[in-house]
Amino acid sequence: MCVLVSLSSVFISIAAVHVHMTERNPAGSPLEAAAGGTDPRAAEAFELLANETRLAILLALWDAYEPFTSSGGVTFSELRERVGGPDSGQFNYHIGKLKGKLIRSTDEGYKLRPAGEKIIRAVIAGSGLETPSLEPTEVAMSCPRCGASTAITYQSGRLFQLCTECGGNFDETDDLPQGTLYAWRFEPAGLVGRTPEEMYRAASLGMIHRALALIDGVCPECFGTVDTEVNICENHNPEDEDVCSNCGRQDEILTLYECSVCKYTGGAAPSDIVSQHPAVIAFYYDRGVDFQYDLDFREVKRVVELEATHQQTLESTDPVRINVTIQYEDEGLALLLDEEMNVLEVN
């Protein structure tokens, strides 16, 4: 499974936006205008951060934060000293703006709330919003399509596995380099201190955990509900090592997931999605194969290579029925799925 695609199923009423903007944005604030029909709390959250002193307060509290300890609060005077902020009245004003939203007051002093921690973590994981890159570097994995060597590269916050010879699983676009086989969301912090194989393993493990949450209808980012859509190419025509000219991918069927709250998205082929189904895990286990992601790159590689042998076919479109077949040595397993990726039959 891989997080690859983006879709938009959230539509905003133009009339509702107009009323919202008339009531909330009489002065034409760019921030509120950009918020449009989004929950007004989004604009308010950005307004909280549009001040250097408030950002400094969050960073100072993060510096004092000690996980797994009951203490760690920072008193008003200590916090003001750490920040080197304005006079007591002004500093208290900024504290008041953050309280109840990004920070909280305890008997030991001020501490970050989970929302405040998440903001700082996002900056740290992004290496201070820098844009590091990784030139294509070969890894010890062959292309599942043509058997050629593969490489990983890092661009614009995503780690890609590329085939060095064929066109990969997708058409080349501004977002997908030539030869893309897989792509994962990957924070720059994940590049630090890892070999290319370790980066691949880290991205794969992170992906499987996020994908499992999406499949179960829980957004891995905000815990919101997830909408599922099966995207079927009506005139699928991939030839040899080329992708389909209609949909720009190898797979005829792709399942798309989108959080109804934060628009976190993901996509995977049904033949990959079934990999964590108990029947599939048991099928491999009974034949001496532990079909789980382990701590070793070689185990991750084995799972990915086995997934590449799974076959999917569209049985019907009304209702949607998808058949996934798995062959290992001389034995096989077949699963019938519906449009929600529920397994209806196992044979």
Tags for this entry?
33% helix; alpha+beta; 347 residues; 4-stranded antiparallel beta sheet; elongated; disordered N terminus
Structure description:
- This protein is of the alpha+beta class.
- It has a domain at 274-346.
- Helix content is 33%, strand content 23%.
- It contains eleven helices and 13 strands.
- It has helices at residues 14-24, 30-35, 40-49, 52-64, 76-83, 88-98, 114-125, 196-215, 270-273, 278-285, 297-307, and strands spanning 103-106, 109-112, 134-142, 149-155, 158-163, 180-185, 226-232, 253-259, 265-268, 311-317, 320-328, 331-337, 343-346.
- The strands form four sheets. Strands 3-4-5-6 form a four-stranded antiparallel β-sheet, covered by helices on one side. Strands 10-11-12-13 form a four-stranded antiparallel β-sheet, covered by helices on one side. Strands 7-8-9 form a three-stranded antiparallel β-sheet.
- Strand 4 (149-155) and strand 5 form a beta hairpin.
- Mean pLDDT is 83; it is low at 1-25.
